[in-house]
Amino acid sequence: MANTPICDTVIQEQCRKLGINNIGKSTIREIVGLVNCIEKETGVKFVRMEMGVPSLKPPKVGTDAEIKALNDGVAAIYPMVDGVPELKKEASRFVKNFIGVDISPECCIPTVGSMQGGYATFLTCSNLDPQKDTALFIDPGFPVQKQQFNVMGHKYESFDVYDYRGEKLREKLESYLSKGNINSIIYSNPNNPSWICFTDDELKIIAEVADKYDAIVIEDLAYFRMDFRDDTYHPGFPPYQASVANYTDNYILMISGSKAFSYAGQRVAVVAISDKVFHRNYPNLQKRFGREQFGATFVMRIIYALSSGVCHSAQYGLAAMLKAANDGTFNFIKDIEEYGKRAEKMKKLFVDAGFSIVYDKDIDKDLADGFYFTITYKDWTGDKLLEELLHYGISAITLDNTGSKKYGLRACVSQITPDKMELLEKRLEIYKQNH
Ligand SMILES: Cc1ncc(COP(=O)(O)O)c(C=O)c1O
After folding, report:
1. Are residues 64 and 205 in the same domain?
2. Would the pTM of this model clear 0.85, i.e. be above it?
């Protein structure tokens, strides 16, 4: 058996120091912390697939706009809670140009990343109606969103969509929504972690079931336009980002600056609320937060309480990037296509080493290559596989953590820059020899 780059004693010792009893149940940030410690202790660099940190440079059009805003003195001024008009206007144009739907600038609210956008949205939706006290996640999903529910103390249910693609999705959704307690349906598209992309037929089903039971669809577009199978950048013309917004008025879109615009460090996103939901009154919101309208509650009661708006300069940065994308002068998709190329190479390396891809189809189409993919080895549990891969200097997160019922791991391609591909290949060769 060939020596592994990391010995078991170091892994066990660092887990003990950090109080990690079950690696498979650790949060993404806990795995990040563990790998940082192992790297520090051993001097061995990991192939880091656990966290979606963009490794591309932030667009100059964004950072220049931020610098200008700071030079103009915005740092001294509190931003308005509902966002700077430039960003609201460009977000509304962006939604029209790249999804093909109309949302007024008033209803486009900047948030401190989609993390805050999600928190505020989940909190508002959980308080619309006392009878509807539960959210429904179409899993697998982004683990920290469940943590947000736990922090808030609100209820959620979830199911793994693996066996319920296509028309089967309707019956599955009906089985939850017909109970009458579901306030919202949450999913990301493309999906973190599996990278499945719902088809238009599936989005239509989600819309129809949501309308039937008066639930709000919360569509998390953190990976906006990152289904690279589609033809790319044509502002104002199809193909658009697939969205439930084409089939219902009961929706909220979360558009993050982090991945599509490599702007994760500035913590800026937009929550685009359909005009209908924004202006709708809910007596229970009046009772709970003192405002009846969804939009007013979201902005003036919740975002105000959480952070009182978003850092001014980050808003100007995102506004400038959206404007350039809208005006046809900034092909943001071309930059991020790099992730698809990495995924294609990495998947091949893993498959050649004996792994298989867990979520591999969008109904009858091969899955796109994108920011994440999912792997499994023989019939191993995610915990066992993650622990084993750590010995080979490779880190990831388990699918257990994402609400998936499948064994395996989520691999994120973002930090595996082309110069690290060879290292991954070498480590997987040792893995193959040893198994
Ligand atoms: C599905 C999903 N939603 C939300 C987020 C958070 O986005 P942000 O960086 O804008 O807070 C992420 C980040 O990885 C994500 O994967």
Report:
1. yes
2. yes
